[in-house]
Design brief:
The protein has 416 residues and is mainly alpha-helical. The chain contains 16 helices and four strands. The protein has a four-stranded mixed beta sheet, sandwiched between helices. Helix 9 crosses helix 13. The structure holds zinc ion. The site of zinc ion has 4 residues, from helix 9 and helix 13.
Amino acid sequence: MTQLTMTALFLLSLFLSSCIRLWLNLRQASCVLAHRASVPEAFAGDIDLAAHQKAADYTLAKGRYSRYDLAMGLIWVLLLTLGGGLQLMHDTVSHVFDAAGLWHGIALFGLLSVAGFVWELPGTLYYTFVLEARFGFNKTTPALFLTDLIKSTLIGVLIGTPLLWCVLWLMRSMGSYWWIWTWGVLIAFNLAAMLIYPVFIAPLFNKFEPLRDEALAARVRGLLDRCGFRAKGLFVMDGSRRSGHGNAYFTGFGAAKRIVFYDTLLEALNADEVEAVLAHELGHFKHRHIVQRVAVFALLSFLLFALLGWLSQQGAFFSGLGVSSQGDAMTLILFSLVLSPFTFPLTPLMSYWSRKHEFEADAYAAAHARAENLVSALVKLYRDNASTLTPDPLHSLFYDSHPPASIRIAHLRSAA
Ligand SMILES: [Zn+2]
């Protein structure tokens, strides 16, 4: 591979994927706008015109933000690569750390993270404090935003530094098959994170209290018994501290499984509906969707690491992307920067797979709770979260992890 081929391949994939993203984004906007005037027939009576128009305006506002985000992301990648930004950062770090040492790589990662954070900060602030606030969803105060930032930075440094040190050491010490070792370490780290996160990290950001509503707890335990599911505990999380959006989930493995309800969800739904939503979540568990996801992630990342192992040997991979200093940290950084346009074609496949899982979980909920309760829960959640009921079919096909509202509810109604 020559330098010119690499540059051309990179620019072409970046350009194509950005055009497709923009095209889908504009399709979504015009579809939502075209249906803004009236509530779709299937939802008439459940959702009033004001709520429908709020959902349309919220979707349009998020779409505009996505276009800004797309443009900023594109500029950032180009600045770092062909614009010489990464090389500049490399040279800056070299003034302090020996370019051949492991700490040089760690410092380079640190500098890039800080620069990326600053680059994205205006967008992040706008999204949280202007866009979400305008539609009544933001509950994050500036003080909470700041303490969250400090906590997550500390956790990132405390966990990220040893992990990165380990990965860079493997790259240097394990010969040409370093990428298999690195892949193994990252998979092990991900599995450990799934165990550690709910018990040690999530409580740093939210309060978890046992579910006190005895009537609801009895309902939930009845459902768990019927489904043959053993949970370690039922918890309520103060999701309302940051956002008005609601959710239910469970975490952990084996006997350590805990079920967590957002307080916002319990506030919005009645006991019948909470039971149906939980039955849907249990459906994901019973169909082993989470295990399948982890397995596919492991397989895909193995293939990507094999590609990375090969690319790290190609001088053109570096020079074609505007970097003259090859190194282990630079290899990882370049790869993660240019990966997204290349994995972009996988997006519709992953979305399709996810929607298939949602249908399976809905069918499970219809069998173990009542389908009409899940329908009424979903309608309330669509309304309260201002989710559009009229997405563009192609946009939905490409991105949506959940089936569009009308199709999902039609499926459930036919199961009832
Ligand atoms: Zn689901």
